[in-house]
């Protein structure tokens, strides 16, 4: 479910953060030390079909490092609009916390800036200098430092992982692997989930073991996330021998993750385990097994829609039970 801002009697969807879009849309991207934001006025903000009133808040920010753009001053003023929820109290979730932050800014005057996206005004920052390179690569480097840091808070690390989910950079997999090895339930499972999405087979055995674990300290929703990511992210043939515990699970949703992974890998070595799933007790699993076999064999007419499969399942099951060899 997408995050949203609750305003009056409706929910405003907030798109996931895109570091690439934020970098492209910003005049200045910095790591800075943020002071306390204070109200300096009110401004109208367009929301959907209407306009709502927002507090306009401002803070002085000391520049630690410039990742994109030019700014001669050592300190700048940054403004951010904050929507007023029902009752008139100010929701501070949209304001960057004090401390070292990564800020994406648009110029509004001499040494004055507004946040590029009020929905995502800042990310956790790090004071270690990043290597030269394109802005997106340098931004990713900052967040990799955050999630690798022993001193960063849990929330900062989770924000860093979340922000990097759409980015490819050489620092990301090593940083996530470090977190996954620390065995802190929330962080390690979150890192495992992100690595599985990236088809990292080196973490897959550990991720499967954790997803199947009965440890009460591991959040169930994170285990479900890992299983979903195995189904959509696993594509490497190297993963095939690691999927056996999922295929043999007594839980249909776990076998479904295995079926989806086998379908996505899509090699001849996946034929036998997919055929074994044609007799699964779950119709969802049987459907994925059938269309996975059709994809491997290159027979589009045996790749039915869900309604067609539900209506004529026997036709497809018997076709593949009669063998895929030579088709």
Morphology: elongated
Distinct helical segment count:
13
**Structural class of the secondary elements?**
alpha+beta
Radius of gyration: 24 Å
CATH topology of the domain at 15-127: OB fold (Dihydrolipoamide Acetyltransferase, E2P)
Helix content: 25-40%
What is the CATH top level name of the domain at 15-127?
Answer: Mainly Beta
Secondary-structure arrangement, i.e. CATH architecture of the domain at 15-127: Beta Barrel
Tally the beta strands: 9
Give the SSE order as H and E letters: EEHEEEEEEEHHHHHHHHHHHH
Q: What does the main sheet amount to? A: 5 strands, mixed, barrel
The CA-CA distance between the termini, in Å, is: 42 Å
Strand percentage? 15-25%
User: Widest sheet: strand order?
Assistant: 3-5-6-8-7
Query: Quick check: average pLDDT?
Result: 89
Low-confidence stretches: 5-10, 87-93
Keywords:
327 residues, alpha+beta, OB fold (Dihydrolipoamide Acetyltransferase, E2P), 5-stranded mixed beta barrel, two-stranded antiparallel ribbon, 13 helices, 22% strand, elongated
Describe the structure.
The protein has 327 residues and is of the alpha+beta class. Among the domains are: 15-127, OB fold (Dihydrolipoamide Acetyltransferase, E2P), CATH 2.40.50; 262-327, no CATH class. It is built from 13 helices and nine strands. The strands form two sheets. A five-stranded mixed barrel has the order 3-5-6-8-7. The chain has a two-stranded antiparallel ribbon with strand order 1-2. Helix 5 crosses helix 6. The longest helix has 15 residues, at 283-297.
């Amino acid at each position: 479910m997408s995050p949203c801002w609750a305003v009056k009697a409706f929910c405003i969807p907030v798109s996931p953060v895109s570091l690439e879009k934020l970098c492209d849309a910003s005049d200045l991207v910095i790591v800075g030390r943020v002071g306390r934001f204070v109200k300096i006025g009110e401004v109208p903000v367009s929301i959907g079909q209407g306009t709502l009133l927002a507090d306009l808040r401002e803070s002085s920010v000391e520049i630690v490092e410039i990742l994109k753009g030019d700014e001669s001053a050592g300190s700048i003023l940054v403004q951010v609009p904050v929507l007023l929820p029902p009752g008139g109290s100010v929701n501070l979730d949209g304001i960057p916390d004090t401390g070292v932050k990564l800020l994406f800014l648009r110029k509004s005057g001499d040494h004055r800036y507004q946040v590029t996206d009020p929905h995502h005004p800042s990310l956790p920052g790090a004071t270690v200098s990043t290597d030269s390179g394109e802005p997106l690569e340098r931004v990713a480097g900052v967040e990799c430092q955050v999630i690798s840091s022993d001193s960063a808070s849990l929330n900062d690390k989770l924000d860093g992982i979340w922000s990097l989910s759409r980015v490819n950079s050489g620092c990301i997999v090593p940083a996530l692997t470090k977190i996954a090895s620390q065995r802190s339930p929330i962080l390690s499972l979150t890192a495992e989930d992100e690595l599985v999405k990236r088809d990292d087979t080196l973490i897959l055995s550990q991720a499967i073991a954790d997803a199947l674990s009965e440890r009460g300290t591991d959040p169930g929703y994170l285990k479900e996330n890992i299983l979903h990511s195995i189904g959509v992210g696993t594509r490497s043939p190297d993963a095939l021998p690691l999927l056996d515990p999922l295929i043999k699970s007594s839980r249909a949703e776990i076998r479904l993750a295995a079926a989806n992974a086998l379908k996505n890998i899509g090699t001849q070595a996946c034929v036998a385990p997919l055929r074994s799933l044609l007799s699964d007790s779950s119709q969802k699993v049987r459907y994925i097994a059938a269309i996975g076999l059709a994809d491997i064999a290159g027979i589009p007419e045996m790749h039915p829609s869900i309604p067609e499969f539900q209506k004529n399942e026997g036709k497809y099951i018997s076709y593949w039970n009669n063998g895929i060899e030579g088709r």
